Amino acid sequence: MYSQVITLNEFIIERQADFPYAKGELTRLLSHMGLAAKVVNREVNKAGLVDILGKAGDINVQGETQQKLDVFANEKFILALKGSAECCGIASEENSEIIKFDTELAKNGKYIVAIDPLDGSSNIDVNVSIGTIFSIFRRLSPVGHTATEEDFLQEGARQVASGYIIYGSSTMMVYTTGRGVNGFTLDSSIGEFCLSHPDVKTPQNGTIYSINEGNYIKFPRGVKKYLKYCQKKDPQTKRPFTSRYIGSLVADFHRNLLIGGVFIYPKTDSSPKGKLRLLYEANPMAFIIEQAGGMATDGDGGRIMDIKPSDIHERVPLYIGSRNMVQKALEFMKENK
Ligand code: P6P
């Protein structure tokens, strides 16, 4: 039975040939991401059993109370990436400044990684799916030296890979290197991520809109009009939209990627750049959705992956998912500026 199974590492190595310049570095980096994901998954899955739940007490750079699992996940991914010898630095949601590795081995790494080690962590204590999101670039600074801030402020279109791990009813790793999107499900009985969703394509249309309607009164007029459009049954098309919002980006995104839908986290008067982070939430998800045939924009017609970041924790409004749904929402935004 296992002869048909393709593990993550086998797949990465097979696809290495896609990259004439890569001599295994990206392969090793992605494999180390997979290893750290298995370690974090083990703790996420038993969080309810050991004293790892609850708040670590510290406040992270986002001003949010850090959960112990946040701290654990951040440490494990930093350790794995430092040990990969392919990554020279990291921008993490949990750290205010970039982490510059200073070992000779790591300084020779050709890549940098932006990561949200445990996104949606407020859901940990209530057993809702959470996830890790990562974005990989080639460094701009010279090999052999420490990483620089500029290495991390590249447009998303320059990503060489991005992906996420969703710790849900099953644990999956979904990633792209610019040649399509592939999903791997963790088979705990053999401790391997196994190819389960080859060449993922997202539907051009969907019936799901994902947005926190608790913020409705603060939404831009265009978003309010789009929601009314979704909610008003059309006599001809019987427009059958439904609202699905988990409050965990990885979970909402993953569902919409597979069955179609649009996720919107718009700007509001109080948050003129929205809530989600460009480097380690919007960009990696935008790379994946575009590779799967979908679309990601800031709501004003700008492509997420064309935005030049000015700060590693920069926020950006996010409209992402099925192409036709995102374009419809954009139409309402344009008509109601
Ligand atoms: P709200 C989780 O904190 C997160 O960063 C994303 O995972 C999620 O999509 C969003 O915030 C939820 O935000 O304001 O709706 O609770």
| Major sheet: arrangement of strands | 4-3-5-6-7-8-9-10
The CATH architecture of the largest domain comes to 2-Layer Sandwich
Q: Which class of the largest domain in CATH terms?
A: Alpha Beta
Mean pLDDT over the residues: 91
Helix/strand order, N-terminal first: HHEEHEEHEEHEEEEEHEHEHEEH
Number of domains: 2
Number of strands: 15
Q: Shape, please? A: globular
Taking Cα atoms only, what radius of gyration do you get, to the nearest Å? 20 Å
Distinct ligand kinds: 6-O-phosphono-alpha-D-fructofuranose
Low-confidence stretches: none
The number of helices is 9
Hey, roughly how much beta strand do the residues contain? 15-25%
Features of this protein?
about 325 residues, alpha+beta, D-Maltodextrin-Binding Protein, domain 2, 2 domains, eight-stranded mixed beta sheet, binds 6-O-phosphono-alpha-D-fructofuranose
Textual characterization of the structure:
It is built from 9 helices and 15 strands. With 337 residues, the protein is of the alpha+beta class. The strands form 3 sheets. The protein has an 8-stranded mixed beta sheet, sandwiched between helices. The chain has a 5-stranded mixed beta sheet with strand order 12-11-13-15-14, with helices on both faces. A hairpin with a 4-residue loop joins strand 8 (171-176) and strand 9 (181-187). The chain is globular, with a radius of gyration of 20 Å. The mean pLDDT is 91. The chain binds 6-O-phosphono-alpha-D-fructofuranose. 6-O-phosphono-alpha-D-fructofuranose binds at residues 119-120, 122, 212, 247-249, 275. The site of 6-O-phosphono-alpha-D-fructofuranose has 8 residues, from loops.
